[in-house]
Write a structure and sequence with these properties.
Radius of gyration: 27 Å
Strand order of the largest sheet: 22-23-24-25-26-29-30-33
Helix content: 10-25%
Largest sheet: 8 strands, parallel, barrel
Number of helices: 9
Number of strands: 49
Length: about 850
């Protein structure tokens, strides 16, 4: 059993990034250092039989020590008969137990100590020193328990916290959920007079280039037995520079709390924008009798925005099309165990494509996702629920709806409402009740809950679709539209009408909803497998024909063409969707389903497929070809991308596509001989040649006004002969959590990428670190993501290395039978 003292916790707390104020003068930094510390290390874990609900632990229980966040499901084997189903990734849930022993200094006995779990999947129960603290069914929202009455303090005194995560009843999700304490855990210690949890609320009711008004509401809590008079001083910083400060006094009764309202002006504010996301910090200090009792920091942004019926989304006075993607919470081969660097990498890959928006489908995200979006300039639709009282799977959240939905939604709004990146609240996704009066009633209830806590952001719901259609056409093409909104859309609860798919109805939005702006909450659902290309690329395939009819005819090996030509029956291709979206100013933006492939929901196939085909990047984060279509449309950088690869049978006719921008034309060459120039016509988003294959070099040249913009070549690869490893970052932090993502390519003897290789690759690591994930992006692979070997898919494989806590060098070696090894060094510091 491991004992961890708070002194040790304080030494590691800076790694959580919560002490930026230590550079600020005039503040009690020791309070900041001790207020909230990371509580992830040295837990013990036990998994009961995944298929039997043995709700007991005893002295004979076998435990293993690990650090959080942790997902036990990703450690298991893919199983066709898993109770989770293939929708849940064919990975078992079960019943898991966690416990941790820790000590507290005697000085803390006069303080208030609480524990916060950012997310436990699911149905968690918590005990401290044998005292039951409570149960929380929702697997996605964080929760806090006050430990103070049950703690032991002083030298030699030990405390034990126990957590039960019950994910045994399956299926309870339509996608892979993961299992366990999969997000961060925090221990918070304050004096008895302190800022309440999520106790600040910052808005900017008036914003101009000259001045911004910052309105502050601070909930101050007094857990003492006597009334206190508190002095509340809030100082606003830009970086480490003090901008302004305001002070107020407030009497707070014993075991009571008060909301203190303050207002400050920021002259010539630096506004938060997607291209330059500037942030401010508000530092709130609570003083009693001249002594600082608490210090609390809130990060916020100053920006002005609105959704306009005619002009779409307007940020700081300028129209801006939201170019977003939907993301599930899993991190590919890491499962659902949250890691800040893993999330940052996903967002960086999306931003490089031109993405400026993220939808947290279909649940509250990890808090760190919003921190990253604040810093990186991403517009967030923060979503609450995938279902209300009507179930989608037998054991889902609908079973807890009546008792828990108000509390869960309130906690989400309170937690997230200061984030500059959050622009839209979504109260539900594809809710069955949208088609009846209960949907209108519940929609109004949920919108009122949101507005009671935050009136600054619009409320929407992702409806499929918001406009009534012929019921027989709902899951096919939405071609038979009518002018009657569904019950939820017509309820008056929504500030923005959210469309899931139904792009054929978008041009009629202003007719159907003449008073309410538009947002495409979920679009596209196109299907691709990286590196696979079907002949006749100009034909559209609808797989399956209907959502409730299995696909009987597909491709061998359960693949989908990487040409943009396969779509789900409710969706559309990437190009078809974007052509409509870009055409109308009043279409404020879209969130594509999805930015990344995710575990589970392997539409259009069943077993043996176990992960999705919807992503613009695959499960390993390798971009599919359509990534470059968006990059050519959504960025100003020069883009020229040609597909497919150039390894075919001689004489085969191959369709060659080019995505490009900033050019008038593209000329294609095969072994130095031109096969013609192509220019986009009308609303075309790519150009195409049908070329008879011959081994050698495929080359494309883009030109503008006769001058070369870019040149790209693809060479025919010989037999697999070597491996090539490339790290996304060769220097990482020796903090026990930071990651380096290493791509391993299979090449021929001349170093040319082999696009069809599928060699089994073995990985070994030297140094203070560990291999925490392997993946190829193959949706049909049943190899473990938590192994030290993996089979390449279409020439590529990924290995994820995590740093230990000792600075030094990590040496990763990749090897495969008959191929030349490759080694890459990672510096940790």
């Amino acid at each position: 059993m491991t004992t961890l003292t708070i002194t040790k916790l304080l030494k590691t707390a800076a790694l959580a990034g919560i002490f930026s104020l230590m550079a600020c003068k005039g503040h009690d930094n020791s309070l900041l250092a001790s207020r909230k510390v990371n509580f992830n290390d040295n837990w013990q874990f036990h998994l009961n039989d995944s298929l039997k609900d043995h709700d007991t632990i005893g002295n004979a229980t076998q435990w293993r020590t690990l650090n959080l966040p942790h997902d036990w499901s990703i450690e298991g084997n893919f199983n066709e008969h898993s109770p989770a189903g293939i929708g849940g990734g064919a990975l078992n849930g079960g019943l898991g137990w966690y416990k941790k022993t820790f000590s507290l200094p005697a000085a803390d006995s006069t303080k208030v100590t609480s524990v916060t779990f950012d997310g436990v999947y699911r149905n968690s129960s918590v005990w401290i020193n044998g005292h039951y603290l409570g149960n929380r069914p929702n697997g996605y929202i964080g929760f806090t328990y006050n430990l103070t009455p049950y703690l032991k303090f002083g030298e030699g005194q030990k405390n034990e916290i126990i957590v039960k995560a019950d994910n045994a009843k399956q299926p309870n999700s339509r996608w892979y959920s993961g299992s366990g304490i999969y997000r961060n855990v925090w221990l918070t210690t304050t004096n008895k007079v302190h800022v309440a949890e999520y106790g600040t609320y910052i808005t900017t009711p008036q914003v101009s280039a000259q001045k911004a008004t910052v309105a502050l509401e601070t909930t101050v809590k007094n857990e003492d037995k006597t009334e206190k008079t508190a002095t509340i001083t809030t100082t606003i910083y830009k970086g480490d520079s003090e901008i302004t400060s305001v002070t107020a006094e407030q009497k707070i009764g014993a075991n009571d709390q008060q909301v203190v309202k303050q207002q400050a002006d920021v002259n010539t504010p630096v506004l938060w924008e997607t291209e330059k996301p500037e942030l401010y910090r508000a530092v709130t200090e609570i003083s009693i009798d001249g002594t600082v009792a608490d210090a609390y920091e809130t990060t916020f942004g100053i920006r002005d925005f609105k959704f306009d019926l005619n002009k779409g989304f307007i940020l700081n006075g300028k129209p801006l099309k939201i170019k977003g993607v939907c993301l599930h919470h899993d991190l590919g081969p890491l499962g659902s165990a949250f890691n800040t660097r893993a999330m940052e990498r996903e967002l960086q890959i999306m931003q490089e494509m031109g993405v400026n928006g993220i939808r947290t489908s279909h649940n509250p995200p990890a808090p760190e996702l919003l921190d990253l979006c604040d810093k990186m300039g991403l517009i967030v639709m923060d979503e609450a629920f995938d279902m209300w009282a009507q179930a989608k799977t037998p054991y889902d959240y609908s079973n807890y709806w009546d008792k828990w939905h108000k509390k869960d939604l309130e906690d989400q709004i309170l937690r997230d409402r200061n984030h500059a990146s959050v622009f839209i609240w979504s109260i539900g996704n594809e809710i069955p009740e949208q088609w009846n009066e209960k949907g209108a009633e519940t929609g109004r209830e949920l919108a009122a809950i949101v507005k009671n806590l935050d009136k600054t952001r619009p409320v929407t719901a992702a409806m499929n679709p918001p406009v009534a259609v012929d019921a027989t056409k709902v899951s096919i093409q939405f071609t038979n539209t009518a002018d009657k909104p569904n019950n939820l859309a017509a309820s008056g609860a929504l500030d923005i009408i959210g469309y899931n798919y139904a792009h054929q109805t978008w041009p009629k939005h202003q007719v159907n909803f003449p008073k309410t702006p538009f947002i495409a909450t979920e679009t596209t659902s196109a299907l691709e497998t990286r590196g696979v290309y079907d002949p006749k690329s100009d034909t559209i395939k609808i797989w399956p024909k209907r959502w409730d009819i299995p696909l009987l005819e597909g491709n061998p090996g359960n693949t989908c063409s990487a040409y943009d030509q396969v779509q789900a029956p409710w969706g559309s291709t990437h190009e078809a969707t974007w052509k409509v979206m870009k055409k109308y100013d009043y279409l404020s933006g879209m969130f594509i389903w999805t930015g990344f492939d995710y575990i589970g929901e392997p539409t259009p196939y069943l077993w043996p497929s176990i992960s999705s085909y919807f992503g613009i990047a695959d499960l390993a984060g390798f971009p599919k070809d359509v990534y470059y279509m968006y990059q050519s449309e959504w960025t100003t950088k020069d883009v020229l991308h040609i597909l497919p690869h150039w390894n075919w049978k001689p004489g085969k006719t191959v369709d060659v596509w080019a995505y490009y921008n900033n050019a008038d034309e593209v000329e294609l060459f095969v072994n130095g001989k031109s096969v013609g120039k192509r220019s986009k016509q009308g609303d075309d988003l790519h150009v195409m040649w049908s070329v008879k294959y011959e081994p050698g070099t495929l080359k494309a040249v883009s030109r503008k006004a006769g001058k070369v913009v870019l040149e790209k070549e693809i060479k025919t690869a010989g037999a697999a002969a070597a491996l090539k490893a490339t790290a996304d970052r060769q220097t990482i932090n020796a903090d026990g959590t930071d990651l380096s993502y290493i791509t391993v390519d299979v090449t021929d003897a001349a170093g040319n990428f082999n696009p069809t290789a599928n060699n089994l690759i073995n990985f070994s690591l030297k140094g203070d670190g560990k291999i925490v994930g392997v993946c190829s992006g193959d949706p049909v692979s049943h190899e473990s993501y938590k192994a030290t070997k993996h089979t390449a898919w279409m020439g590529k494989c990924l290995v994820i290395v995590q740093a230990g806590k000792k600075p030094g060098t990590l040496q990763l070696t990749a090897s495969a039978a008959g191929l030349k090894d490759t080694t890459v060094n990672i510096t940790t510091k």
